[in-house]
């Protein structure tokens, strides 16, 4: 929960946000239909977010309470949903007469597909005076054709989280820097009957992180950018990435039954296995410490967890320091977009961003809040990601939704012992052709 002093600061800030927006709303950039739909008087905003567990669940609850206290004319009805539910619920909601006013958005390809519904608000005019200052260039990931359709509140970078105590038991003295060293670590952990790496295969997207990273290591930055823009995988490096994945899977690095393991739900999830010392590593985003803390009784977990970047791949054309990442944000639908945008400005204000960072819920988009990150390890991740020469957004978000889903399915198929490196490339290109 917020301390009393911080509640006062947040409430005071919340009180001035709509006034600032009213002065710079830039109505000329908002479609006339959207202007007509803005409610006058009291407004109720339905908010779909993925904060189903603490610490972020409590942070969001306090944010709502503070905002409503400062704005008695605004009622926010928060509805937490499981992360995996958004892929199905949001498209359906955007085809319905009453979609949520605010919903979780990961930007890029996902967002570009959603705006075709006509229900997602163009908030360019209402954000242009503050979004770059609050989010830096990262806010551009929530643009489509130069127009702002959402606002990020955290940024993410993916790497390996590991148990220092289990590494020590296996005689691993330094985190792996190359694939050869990672493979050696897997062998050493197996020799001690420790599951080397956990993965939430049931949810598929954690599997895709491996292919994503092998592609980032095999493909040059120029090829990655061109391929995402064209929505087509033509360079041989994509097939090489699939072969790297196939070779890694052959080492059997994952826990028994990984195909049926969820990523984040319950102590038996892949996150829970690491949190409770049942597995030594997991390739996940910076949200992982917060997720793990809700799945274990261990109050000293933070001191037992370390982090290292995805290893280098010998002979790869990619920048060895390039990172995989993305971010969490929110988009507004058209019914009450001005009130929604005012709330999003509040979420990227320094006090709220500081609270998110301090509670370990993610890496803040507002650079002024980075100093409040909960642990030295999170500061390490933030420093690595923000200094990376190139950050590739997860491909299932960078590509249009249907194409990203096809990629994840094809990778999961390989994890299940079926499929080929060429099959992953074919699946993406066929989905892209069908998406046009």
TrEMBL record:
* Segments passing through the bilayer: none
Enumerate the UniProt keywords alphabetically. Signal
UniProt cross-references to InterPro entries, sorted A to Z: Bact_solute-bd_prot1 (IPR050490), SBP (IPR006059)
Q: Where is the signal peptide?
A: 1-22
Q: Does the record bear RNA-binding in its keywords? A: no
Q: What's the protein called, per UniProt?
A: Sugar ABC transporter substrate-binding protein
């Amino acid at each position: 929960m917020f301390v009393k002093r911080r509640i006062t600061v947040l409430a005071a800030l919340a009180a001035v946000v709509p006034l600032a927006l009213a002065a710079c709303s830039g109505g000329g950039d908002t479609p006339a239909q959207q202007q007509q739909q803005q409610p006058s008087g009291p407004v109720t905003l339905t908010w779909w977010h993925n904060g189903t567990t603490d610490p972020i669940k409590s942070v969001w609850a306090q944010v709502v309470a503070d905002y409503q206290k400062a704005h008695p004319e605004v009622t926010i009805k928060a509805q937490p949903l499981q992360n995996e539910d958004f892929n199905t619920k949001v498209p359906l909601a955007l085809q319905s007469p009453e979609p949520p006013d605010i919903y979780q958005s990961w930007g890029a390809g996902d967002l570009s597909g959603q705006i075709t519904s006509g229900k997602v608000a163009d908030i360019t005019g209402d954000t242009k005076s503050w979004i770059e200052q609050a989010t830096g260039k990262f806010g551009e990931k929530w643009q489509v054709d130069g127009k702002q359709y959402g606002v990020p509140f955290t940024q993410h970078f993916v790497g390996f989280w590991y148990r220092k105590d289990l590494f020590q038991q296996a005689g691993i003295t330094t985190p792996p820097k190359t694939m050869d060293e990672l493979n050696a670590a897997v062998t050493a952990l197996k020799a001690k009957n420790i599951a080397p790496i956990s993965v939430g295969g049931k949810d598929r997207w954690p599997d895709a992180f491996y292919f994503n990273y092998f592609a980032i290591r095999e493909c040059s930055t120029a090829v990655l950018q061109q391929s995402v823009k064209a929505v087509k995988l033509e360079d041989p490096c994509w097939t090489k990435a699939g072969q790297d994945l196939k070779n890694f899977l052959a080492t059997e690095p994952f826990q028994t039954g990984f195909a049926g393991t969820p990523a984040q739900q319950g102590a038996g999830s892949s996150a829970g296995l690491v949190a409770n010392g049942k597995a030594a590593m997991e390739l996940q985003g910076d949200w992982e410490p917060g997720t793990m803390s809700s799945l274990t009784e261990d109050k000293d977990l933070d001191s037992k967890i370390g982090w290292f970047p995805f290893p280098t791949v010998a002979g790869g054309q990619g920048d060895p320091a390039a990172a995989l990442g993305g971010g969490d944000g929110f988009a507004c639908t058209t019914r009450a977009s001005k009130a929604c945008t005012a709330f999003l400005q509040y979420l990227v204000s320094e006090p709220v961003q500081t609270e998110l960072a301090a509670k370990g819920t993610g890496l803040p988009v507002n650079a002024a809040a980075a100093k409040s990150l909960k642990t030295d390890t999170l500061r390490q991740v933030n420093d690595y990601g923000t200094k990376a020469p190139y950050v590739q957004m997860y491909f299932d978000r960078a590509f249009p939704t249907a194409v990203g889903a096809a990629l994840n399915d094809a990778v999961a198929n390989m994890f299940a012992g079926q499929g080929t490196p060429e099959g992953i490339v074919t699946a993406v290109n066929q989905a892209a052709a069908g998406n046009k």
